[in-house]
Amino acid sequence: MTRDEGRIEVPEVPAKSYAFELDTFQQKAVECLERGESVLVSAHTSAGKTVVAEYAIAMAIRDGQRVVYTSPLKALSNQKYRELKEEFEDVGLMTGDVVINPSASCLVMTTEVLRSMLYRGGEVMREVGWVIYDEIHYMRDSERGVVWEESIVLLPDMVKYVFLSATIPNAREFAEWVCKTHNQPCHIVYTDFRPTPLEHYVFPANGEGIFLVMDRQSKFRDSNFEQAVTVIADGGGAAAARVANRARGDDGKKEAVNQDIFKIIRMVVERNYDPVIVFAFNKHECEKMANSLHKVDLCDEDEKKLIDTIYWNAMDSLSDEDKRLPQVANLPNLLRRGLGVHHSGLLPILKEVIEILFQEGLIKVLFATETMSVGLNMPARTVVFCSPRKFDGAGFRWITSGEYIQMSGRAGRRGKDDRGLVILMMDERMDPPVAKNMLHGQSDTLDSAFHLNYAMILNLMRVEGAEPESLIQSSFAQFQNDRALPGLEAKIVEIQKDRDAVKIHDEDSVDEYVKLKDGLDAMIRERRVVTNTPTHAVPFLQPGRLVRPGEEDVVWGMIVSFERIGGGGKSGKAAYGVDVLVRTRENSDGKTPLSSKSKNDRYEFLNANEEDDSSEPRVIRVPLEQLDVLSSVRVYLPKDLHPREARDQCISSVGEVIKRFPDGVPVLDATRDLKIDSENFSKLLKRIDGIKSMMKKHPVASSERLVEQLSAHKRKRELSIALKQAKKNAKAAAGLIMRNELKQMRRVLKRLGHTSAEGVVQTKGRVACELASVDELVTAELIFNGMFKEVDVDMLVALVSCLVWREKSRNTPKLSEETAEVFSRLKDVARKVGKQMMECRMSVDVEEYVEGFRSELMEIMLAWCKGNKFAEIMKMTDLFEGSIVRAIRRVEEVLRQLSDACRVIGETELQEKFTIASEKVKRDIVFVASLFL
């Protein structure tokens, strides 16, 4: 894969000369290119990877070859087109909605466009000598990563590659895959060297200064870190309150963060450490923090004039109406003070003008979400993290070392700064190992996110000589799977050895006893289903009542509060969450303490009288149906549980109750208190008592070694389950991955008429091939069942918006009767498709699949098609302007795809209708040209 055939010098007249001396890694990469061999350049942000890409382009043009430069985002493609156009004359751009100079020697495009070109064939792909993949680590993206794999596999073997990536630990594995797939060498040029070293600081909440915790030699300063944590601990109740407030969405925490941000910004600017990027983890936080700095002004009068000139020149392409939009009109107030925001909710033209102003040094402080850390050439001197935690959809977690490296990499401008500063704001205790791993850990590995989709299968079935199986076989996912097989086989032997080593005294009797216990546990769960229904249990969920929150008989806590948390899903029954104060020990995954939204599997429950250094009273959210029993005892509960002393006092009260009732804390009687009058329930209680009696009389129950025997049995059972799973994994790894899934998906295509019984792609399948960015099956059904023909052009656009929009929104316009009827028909089509998938044994929840099609944009799109101004449609929703623009652009893109699909099958009338719809949508600020073009 890598070899050294002696130093190969760059030719006397290199393809491109630079005004500076190349770094070693750049020099090595250029040597590989001149040798006509592929290269993977894996280096930190701002290390200078672009130099290698530029040399490859210059070399291809010199040698009369065409070169493709792919990027993950349209915005990045636009910016890259502008940069390359200044460097090389013969450059074109293809991003789906924009095509400039498609016959150019160097074509900049999104990876999706490259994949489409490969499926369709054409002159361009026959002339390409080099393909440059920028940000190749995007391949691990769960939704879009598969596009990278498809395009790499589908490219001809004679094409050579330049892969540009952030540092990835498994670069060798990726390069080996490319070697195997295309039968050519792929060299790795990997450097951990950072031209501008970083210093990492912690700013403790309510603190007055920063602590250096990792110096530019990457040495972790334990004593400084402990000092910072001490400052947080001294904040005591305030810090605990902030943690609780984060879970409950209160404003108290935000106010404290805003004050701390003000301190940091003042310190950074006073010491000339700007420009600074402040990373927040949601759009609203970015806006609120920027707007809270209303006293900060970092620009002189000349800079203010220059900002105004650049800004309003950029806005010249907008209509007077659009210039009055709140986002457009209000932003200059922020920018003129040297502040900016950058997130997906901004109008695209505003994002671009902010990028230009930041690159020109006119924005000193930029509040951004983490998406800005991908690709855009926007280095700063200082990076600030407003929190070490982020919400990932399930709960708050520490940011990973990979995420930290990606974002902190923006600090330190090459050639301008002697060092970059990274400041991590902390408002709660973090253990030193967690901090070391975050600051000094590895980048995230490049793991395949390959998955099958219907358009991919149909496209491959349509191309002569191509088969879905061959693409799967050549995928990085299959490669990683095959490499894992020897390890899986070794694991089977190891688990088997460990299982056989577990010896259980009187194993048969212990096994019999455990079966009784399993039966008892199942019946107790059955009992809970009845006792914990809202009708019976809710009247007794008062604060202060003792309760057993889980499986453990000995563990008691007390109810703090409860709330209705939903309609109970498909059953339609109400679901409740109960907040229980209980002594716990935090698991090693570092989850948020004192969070009423926490899942209790993050913690080990302890007895009220059991205490050690790692235990703490915490409020844990427990679903009502998981509560074991409710006690008839209630104790005093203070109003404020934020102080640790208050929680300790409550747990002491629980311990005192346990001591007073040595025979067991009294519980509510099912018949007398909970009013459960059921013969079956009475029988269940008798069976539970019967099994408990049998367990007491069982010979093993009196064994002095019972705890040891049960522990050994549990260990052996766990190992047996692990062994079964390991054998299953090894069996799956031994063959083609996704074989069953492919078989099921082919069956769905056959049933819905996309392919014939012999596997030949039919007319409906040819339509689905053209639909790359929406649900191919449902969209094809809408074409062929005549629904698109029946509705008028405006309603057609509204209907397409349901295929595009997947997010939930709290505040959207109510559907009119006509719109609701159209949406209902769409759901019927989706339900039909979902049932076919389920009948073909695919793991799909039909109702969940149907709910994936959303109506939030329908009325908005109808208003847009009727000619309403953008300001008017923004009054109909609480969504960000940028989100609406992105959605309308995607609707227009899908309309173009649908027009192409109708052209393919000769459906001219419908083709014309989609074209008219596309033209109707394409107007005003939503489709204003990029400033980079």
From TrEMBL:
<dbReference type="InterPro" id="IPR048392">
    <property type="entry name" value="MTR4-like_stalk"/>
</dbReference>
<keyword id="KW-0539">Nucleus</keyword>
<comment type="similarity">
    <text>Belongs to the DExH box helicase family. SKI2 subfamily.</text>
</comment>
<dbReference type="Pfam" id="PF21408">
    <property type="entry name" value="MTR4-like_stalk"/>
</dbReference>
<dbReference type="GO" id="GO:0003724">
    <property type="term" value="F:RNA helicase activity"/>
</dbReference>
<dbReference type="GO" id="GO:0000460">
    <property type="term" value="P:maturation of 5.8S rRNA"/>
</dbReference>
<dbReference type="GO" id="GO:0005634">
    <property type="term" value="C:nucleus"/>
</dbReference>
<protein>
    <submittedName>
        <fullName>Uncharacterized protein</fullName>
    </submittedName>
</protein>
<dbReference type="GO" id="GO:0003723">
    <property type="term" value="F:RNA binding"/>
</dbReference>
<dbReference type="InterPro" id="IPR011545">
    <property type="entry name" value="DEAD/DEAH_box_helicase_dom"/>
</dbReference>
<dbReference type="Pfam" id="PF08148">
    <property type="entry name" value="DSHCT"/>
</dbReference>
<dbReference type="InterPro" id="IPR001650">
    <property type="entry name" value="Helicase_C-like"/>
</dbReference>
<dbReference type="Pfam" id="PF13234">
    <property type="entry name" value="MTR4_beta-barrel"/>
</dbReference>
<keyword id="KW-0067">ATP-binding</keyword>
<keyword id="KW-0547">Nucleotide-binding</keyword>
<feature type="domain" description="Helicase ATP-binding">
    <location>
        <begin position="30"/>
        <end position="186"/>
    </location>
</feature>
<dbReference type="InterPro" id="IPR027417">
    <property type="entry name" value="P-loop_NTPase"/>
</dbReference>
<dbReference type="GO" id="GO:0016787">
    <property type="term" value="F:hydrolase activity"/>
</dbReference>
<dbReference type="Pfam" id="PF00271">
    <property type="entry name" value="Helicase_C"/>
</dbReference>
<dbReference type="GO" id="GO:0005524">
    <property type="term" value="F:ATP binding"/>
</dbReference>
<dbReference type="InterPro" id="IPR050699">
    <property type="entry name" value="RNA-DNA_Helicase"/>
</dbReference>
<feature type="domain" description="Helicase C-terminal">
    <location>
        <begin position="260"/>
        <end position="464"/>
    </location>
</feature>
<dbReference type="InterPro" id="IPR014001">
    <property type="entry name" value="Helicase_ATP-bd"/>
</dbReference>
<keyword id="KW-0347">Helicase</keyword>
<dbReference type="Pfam" id="PF00270">
    <property type="entry name" value="DEAD"/>
</dbReference>
<dbReference type="InterPro" id="IPR016438">
    <property type="entry name" value="SKI2-like"/>
</dbReference>
<dbReference type="InterPro" id="IPR012961">
    <property type="entry name" value="Ski2/MTR4_C"/>
</dbReference>
<dbReference type="GO" id="GO:0006401">
    <property type="term" value="P:RNA catabolic process"/>
</dbReference>
<dbReference type="InterPro" id="IPR025696">
    <property type="entry name" value="Beta-barrel_MTR4"/>
</dbReference>
<keyword id="KW-0378">Hydrolase</keyword>
